[in-house]
């Protein structure tokens, strides 16, 4: 991704088949602190993108060969952070609107005055700066999150594990002399420390599921395998609450990792049981679509309010469930989403308060195709 703005000089590429337009643009920007390059056809312009890495590209809409819209599409596909502005004739305002739908930031009609061109250039570069800043902030936030997880793992996990071990030894050594009350107290301490260690582990998982590691072990497997395993592990909770789990269909296959898919499904089916009323029903349906498989987990439980719905996939977020407090850390869905997204899948939710909720998971069936190069054939240039 081009980061020219970071070193001060912005790079501008102008693609137009009219030499006079190119020359006048260069002249207008001559006294400005920009590096300007030009290309006289769409294909040449695209070829030049990688080498020049512009911040801003002006594209003439009407050119022989590759059209402006095709150029725009290719740029946007390759690096959507590059700001694009289309140059249009008066008669082509409609296509300018079309271009903006395809991701162009603005358009400038021909003929334009030097001032108009300078203003639109400055504004577009400002936009580019904002886009890059937003990306940098997002990256920083992600790094903070991951660093924080690393710190927690060292600073919290190791001493906690040490305390746990010492406690086990101590409880064992003292066992001949402890009273029943003391034994219960020691057991309670062990169990609370165990809970804390579990929590730290789950949180670490929510921030740093080893995505690349698991991707290497992806294979095509029937979706029924992780579903059956997830249902088995949730069944005891369901029995306790008299909730019936119905698996309606088990069709479809998925390209992924059985272990972590089971984990994600266990979280989501587990929630469906946990947030169900006594005697409720949880229905799991799978459907093979063209290149994806769809899983719906529907419950007849408490539902999720609109305010909560936007946050439930965040770390540690727990909604107001309008039933007696359920145990949990608010991490299950955060982990599940990361797992599903690591499979290039998606998870969404629909819900009605007091009536129930459906989580819908879409997962690819096949391994992704290797990316196709967007560069035009030599003969096109
Ligand atoms: N099927 C559901 N019905 C109603 N509310 C739900 C459902 N699934 C999730 N929620 C809401 O979303 C919140 C977040 O869910 P998540 O699984 O991340 O955490 P949790 O279940 O509270 O705790 P954990 O999964 O870490 O034990 C829950 O606290 C609950 O408010
Ligand atoms: Mg949960």
Structure description:
- By secondary structure, the protein is an alpha/beta fold.
- It has three domains: 4-137, 3-Layer(aba) Sandwich (Rossmann fold), CATH 3.40.50.2300; 143-212; 214-364, Heat Shock Protein 90 (2-Layer Sandwich).
- 49% of the residues lie in helices and 19% in strands.
- The strands form three sheets. Strands 2-1-3-4-5 form a five-stranded parallel beta sheet, with helices on both faces. The chain has a five-stranded mixed beta sheet with strand order 7-9-10-12-11, with helices on one face. Strands 6-8 form a two-stranded antiparallel sheet.
- Helix 2 runs parallel beside helix 3 and helix 6 runs parallel beside helix 11.
- The longest helix has 61 residues, at 114-174.
- The protein is elongated, with a radius of gyration of 29 Å.
- The model is unreliable at 1-5 and 373-381 (pLDDT under 50).
- Magnesium ion (MG) binds next to helix 9.
Q: Which term fits the overall shape?
A: elongated
Task: Name the CATH superfamily assignment of the largest domain.
Answer: Histidine kinase-like ATPase, C-terminal domain
Query: How many strand units?
Result: 12
Elements, N to C (H/E): EHEHEHEHEHHHEHEEHEEHHEE
Strand content: 15-25%
Rg measurement, Å: 29 Å
The average pLDDT is 88
What is the highest CATH level, the class of the largest domain?
Answer: Alpha Beta
- Name the ligand types: adenosine-5'-triphosphate, magnesium ion
